[in-house]
Design brief:
The chain contains 14 helices and 4 strands. By secondary structure, it is mainly α. The longest helix has 26 residues, at about 170-195.
Length: about 325
């Protein structure tokens, strides 16, 4: 069996797997994109994750692996990708927020597999509900080196002189979710009126970059809304980088129908900048008085706007064009 002597080799293997899957997922990049990738991978948030080498680091490789299966082996991916993702969700509860993304992939096998996985997860959660409650009740919900909707809201409440009564943590978290839902609703309306639907949202099946982006966004928004999370969980934002790079820098001459508007490109570029700030600024939580959480809210808003407009709902599906950026790589 494994003992203390295996700790370093096992941790090294997890770190290597994380870095390998992250670099393979991002792929070939330009100089400017490479600087962004380096800034993210060398950030305090990612170093925090690699220093701890906890389950989140391993789960990133599993989630990224599900995206790479979708990218490289399209025929079996409709079953294998959701199954791989389901493994991540059962290993640690929070990834389940991304599982519904597979319902929008415009593939019947992926939709059926994801539906079965959601049912299976519900059964698993019901069977282990007592354990889940114990874990939820004992999990650390700190504010230092952390992100979450509740952190900034609590700080603002105290700044205005209101001292909330002691109550259940779950009730306080539920109240914190309400502003997040309101923000997402306003952003959905704004994005719908302001931007045309990106071409990726009309392709069948869903392009791998968009799948990766939506999974990373779902994990971030889900964890942001329902709990305080240590900054190492920000490693899942790496999943959003390939699509953001594509949107921010795509040559308008690449394919006429796929060229994003200048406003969409600018919004994607701003989102990339906000992500870089977020993964670095968490280490300054003390001198900033927790107002580093403004960055986490900004990223939530930006990713929410992009995701809500690019989610394939109501658009006419069409095959990915031959020779397009998506099919050529």
């Amino acid at each position: 069996g494994m003992g203390q002597a295996h700790t370093v080799p096992f941790a090294t293997a997890i770190i290597v797997a994380f870095l390998a899957t992250a670099m393979i997922l991002v792929g070939r990049v330009s100089l400017g994109q490479g600087i962004v990738v380096a800034a993210v991978l060398c950030s305090p948030a990612v170093m925090f994750a690699l220093e701890r080498v906890n389950m989140d680091v391993l789960l990133f490789s599993v989630v990224a692996g599900s995206v790479l299966v979708w990218r490289w082996w399209p025929r079996p991916a409709g079953v294998l990708s959701p199954v791989l993702y389901f493994v991540a969700a059962t290993a640690k509860i929070f990834p389940v927020v991304g599982l519904p993304v597979f319902l929008f992939t415009r593939r019947r096998d992926a939709v059926l597999t994801a539906t079965a996985a959601l049912v299976g997860f519900a059964v698993y959660a019901a069977a282990t509900l007592a354990d889940i409650r114990v874990v939820a009740g004992t999990a650390t919900q700190g504010q230092a080196y952390s992100y979450g909707a509740r952190i900034l809201l609590s700080r603002i409440v105290r700044l205005v002189g209101f001292q909330p009564e002691t109550g259940a943590s779950s009730a306080k978290q539920a109240l914190a979710i309400l502003p997040v839902l309101a923000l997402m609703g306003l952003l959905a309306l704004w994005a719908y009126r302001r931007f045309p639907r990106p071409a990726e949202a009309t392709y069948r099946p869903m392009p791998w970059r968009l799948l990766s982006f939506l999974l990373g966004t779902a994990i971030y928004l889900g964890t942001f809304a329902v709990a305080n999370n240590f900054d190492y969980r920000l490693i899942f934002l790496i999943l959003t980088l390939p699509q953001l790079f594509e949107w921010a820098s795509r040559d308008e001459a690449a394919t006429a129908d796929a060229a994003p508007t200048q406003e969409w490109q600018a919004l994607s570029a701003v989102t990339l900048g906000a992500i870089v700030i977020l993964v670095w600024i968490g280490s300054l939580w003390e001198p900033l008085g927790l107002f580093d959480e403004l960055a986490s809210w900004a990223v939530a808003g930006l990713l929410g706007a992009l995701a809500l407009r690019s989610l394939p709902i109501g658009a006419v599906a069409r095959p990915q064009p031959r020779g397009s950026v998506e099919t050529a790589r």
